[in-house]
Amino acid sequence: MRDIKFRAWDYNSKSMMFPTHIKINHVKGRWRPLMQYTGIKDKKGKEIYEGDILDNEYEVYFSEELAQFCYRHRKSRNACLAYNANILSVTGNIYENPELLEEI
Length: 104
Hints:
Helices cover 12% and strands 44% of the residues. By secondary structure, the chain is mostly beta strands. It has one domain (6-102): SH3 type barrels (Roll), CATH 2.30.30. The strands form two sheets. A five-stranded antiparallel sheet has the order 8-7-6-5-9. The chain starts with 5 loop residues before the first strand and ends with a helix.
């Protein structure tokens, strides 16, 4: 069984928070959006969350259609994260490092 964990971007402090007790008023105001841990680690053993950027070019997201975590690149097809995480590394996230995706 995988761990169910979340993180959230704190717009006030401009930092990633790893809340242990999430209150509704924080979710609606200060901490948004909530990003879930995928249950998968990258090739270096770092936990991968929604919104992470892998190898400076792929964004991790949850596919409602496929009901699984995937990653996407603007110039190529989407791929299932579970099959490829062991060859990718977390290099940032869409909030702290948006410039990584702008260069694609």
